[in-house]
Amino acid sequence: MSLLDVTDLSVAAGGVDRVRGLSFSLSADERLGLIGESGSGKSLTALAITGLLPEGLTVRGSVRLDGTEVVGAPERALVPLRGHVASVVFQEPLTSLDPLMRLGSQLAEPLRRHQGLRGAPLRAAVLDALREVSLPEPERIAKAYPHEISGGQRQRVAIAMALACRPKLLIADEPTTALDVTVQAEILDLLDRLVAGRGMALLFISHDLAVVARETSRVLVLRNGEAVEAGPLADLLAAPRHLYTAELVASAAALDAALEVS
């Protein structure tokens, strides 16, 4: 059985489908890239998988996460899945970090809820999680508020929070778009190391084919809420079947060429 099975998923807003008839699966140790331009339905798909879609959106189809049906499930059935079975790292960590709470306290929440840690073991686990994402001075970071550290450090904290309870699936939704090129490379290296080291499944979401190619071996291309092409990354790069995929490949190749010249 797959860790994640998405079948005929549709997400509608105001009676208009933003995601239409999407189907794919993900095994326990597999990496899948979900690529498409802004508005293609990538982030809505990530939110639907974890049952985090905002009110006012209508969901049809099926999302089975580690055997549990997410679509239509009550909140009490979804809470144990989040952080323990699947976690999300978002594009902007400030959306997932409480600006009024110290970072160590925020990181302690999932450890307390899912692993039952208290006292000294909890404090030790918080510092270990910060060290694992290569943050300097973890004691200082744990006492800091989000605005007191850099954007790259905030994203590392967000990754530490997502991975604290050792989920089976990590969903990375444009996790480096808001960062400069150098920090972006560091975060991608970190994600690659942690996913490989823990043997997790990865759903990597991006508009950038070059970034997706760095992290995944299989790709699903979305456009206007629909899957237009899917398959092994090498096949899509060598012989894209859909015009939109060909445009993505050409854009990535042009960028690589420009960087080589510069």
UniProtKB/TrEMBL annotation:
PROSITE patterns, A to Z: ABC_TRANSPORTER_1 (PS00211), ABC_TRANSPORTER_2 (PS50893)
Keyword set includes Membrane: yes
GO annotations of cellular component type: plasma membrane
Major localization listed first in the record, in broad terms: membrane
Keyword ATP-binding set for record: yes
Domain ABC transporter: from-to ranges: 4-249
Bilayer topology annotation: Peripheral membrane protein
UniProt-listed Pfam families: ABC_tran
Alphabetized InterPro entries for the sequence: AAA+_ATPase, ABC_Ni/Peptide_Import, ABC_transporter-like_ATP-bd, ABC_transporter-like_CS, P-loop_NTPase
SUPFAM superfamilies: P-loop containing nucleoside triphosphate hydrolases
Protein localization: Cell membrane
A GO MF label: ATP hydrolysis activity
Keywords: ATP-binding, Cell membrane, Membrane, Nucleotide-binding, Transport
Database matches in Gene3D superfamilies: P-loop containing nucleotide triphosphate hydrolases
Family that this chain belongs to: Belongs to the ABC transporter superfamily.
Record-given protein name: ABC transporter ATP-binding protein
